[in-house]
Structures are given as C-alpha cells and as structure tokens.
Write a structure and sequence with these properties.
The protein is mainly β. The chain contains 1 helix and 34 strands. It is globular, with a radius of gyration of 18 Å.
Length: about 375
Amino acid sequence: MNARSLSWLTLPMLVLLAACPNSGGGDGGLESPGATARVYVANGASNDVSGYSINPTTGALTVITGSPFSGVTNPTAIAISPNSALAYVANQGGSVAAFSINSATGVLTATAGSPFAAGTNPRGVVVSPNGQFLYTANGGGNVSAFTVTAGTGVLTAISGSPFAAGNSPAGIVVSPNGSFLYVANENSNDISAYTINGATGALTAVGGSLFATGGSAPTGVAIAPNGEFLFVSNGGSNTVSVFSVNSTTGALTAVAGSPFAAGTDLRGGPVVSLTGSFLYVANGSNNNVIGFTVNGSTGALAAMTGSPFAAGSLPIGVTIDSSGLFLYAANSGSGTVSAYTISTGTGALISLNGALGNPFGAGTGPASIATPR
C-alpha cells in the first residue's frame, strides 16, 4: 500500500491551513501559505462546538469569533474534512451535523439540511481522504455511509447503508489510501474491517473480519500515516492492540507482543504522529496522556520516556495539529483543552506555559477534539 522507507520519512511538516482547495485525494494535502491552522472541540454537555486558531510558533489557542457554535445535540465525535472546508459532528440522538468552515475566520456555518439522519447512537465519524465519503460508527451495531457533495458538504446516504458491524461500534478510521475502513466494536471486543468501493463508497467486509483485539472494550482506533499498522485502544483492559495491515486485502494480523499495557482508564481513540513514530492516548481518571514510541518495522510499542504527561480533569481525546508540532487533549471533567509541544526525536510532551493561557477554556463536557490533518 505504501513504502515504509518513503512514507515515514517524507511526511510534510508544514502547517495545514483551513483554506486549502480539495485536492481530490490523499490524506489532507498542503494548504496555501499564510492561513491559520485550527482545532475544534465537540462539547457533549453544553451542546456546542468550540473553535480555536493555533499560533504556529507557540501552539497557543485563540478562540474563534462566534465560538462556541450551536447546531449540535449531545455530540459524541467530530471530524474535519481533508481540505479543512467542512466539519461534521456525530449527535448521540442519531444524526450528523454538517458545517462549512470559513477559510478566513474559521467560523462554522450549518450546511443546508443539517443535521442528516444516521444510525442509532453514532459514536464515531470519519471523512475519507479524498473527501468524497463520510462514515459513522453507530452504537446500534452498524456503519452509516454517505457521499459528500463537493462544495456544500451535504450528505446523501449510500446505497446499502447502513452496513452491519459488530456489537456496539465506537471508533472508526479510514486507511490513508482510502481503500479500507476499520471500526472498533466495544462490546464484542473486535474490529470490523471493510473494503471501500472507490466509485460508490459502499462497504464490503474484508475476508476474516471480525478481527479479535485481544483486549476488552475497544473504543478507539487509529492508523499509521503509511497505512501499515492499525492501533486500537482497549478501555476495558487498559491496553493498546496493534495490527499489521495487509496492503492488498486490508486483513489484520496482530503484531508480536500485542496488546501492549497502557494506563488504567483509557478514553477515546489514540492518535499517531505525522511521522508515525509516536502514539498517544488519553488516560481519563488519571488525568494524563500516555505516550509510546512505535517501532517502524514491527509496529511494536514501547513506553515513552517521561510518560504519562499531566493533563486536565478526565481527558477524553487527543489530536495532533497538521504541522505535527503540537498535541491537544480535550478534558471532559474540567471543560478545557491542554496543549503541548511534541519534542523532536523523543516525542515527549511539553506543556505550553500557563502564561499563554494553557489550559484553554472549552465548553461543558468535551466529548471529542479534531484538527485538520
């Protein structure tokens, strides 16, 4: 699917901007110089979305004018389109709210027809790398699939949707080449794997799916930037499972040593650095973020020096900005966002100085956090 020797070494370290035109493929694409990178937080208890611009030098956050934005109800997850022009929020009641992102200001404006009906209790949402398809992991046991109308972001259900999954789907991710989709099923302790029809977006189960995680209560899933390894956070067993991905079929094979011990209260999904060398996951009741180094050849995880790193109260999710320089953790207990610089070479997290405003205020009960990647 991707050559390890190239993709792990040549990933861009430029800040992705919120005004980039849709490249029609690839995982994001570079945006025009001079615009501003941003981060968005879906607040589950206050029913809104907080938006921030990111200082490219310090990583400090500045609240976007008009934030927080309404138009969501009991939001559980948020995703940004690869061209940074659209934001989608999964609402627990069974819908997806769609917003356009103003390229100059970052302001969110509800798309015509939003929210769009999804399955029961959507808990995860993802946009395909080419921006053409959107998928939700529905806790009711399936995956809703939509086409995304270019320009407007309007969602249209794909023929055959929803597609069957395991028991209580939660986390969801699409491979960087857009060929495969993976869903973490919390109550059946496995991963549903699908091939994606490049023309229609329809899903077909990968041979051998479902794949056992080896852990319990998986709630989040992430994939390496080169597509070679899949990572699953198991909230019940406090481990991270790692799989190698067959580049032809999408089938998963557990790597040696998986699952790997993590904290004592994993929350949400893990996030992988742009280089693929580091992995991070929120450790809820311990109020910190756990970091691992990733073996580029085997996918094996090793505890990162200095980990865990202190966060706010009950961190629920983490994200890395498009420059790869900063990590942000949404703290559901304190209603804040903790910000860190990522140390070159080691991956260790260094909290931004409190004088910059860290941690930064959010809404009540943050449930998910996302940045354009």
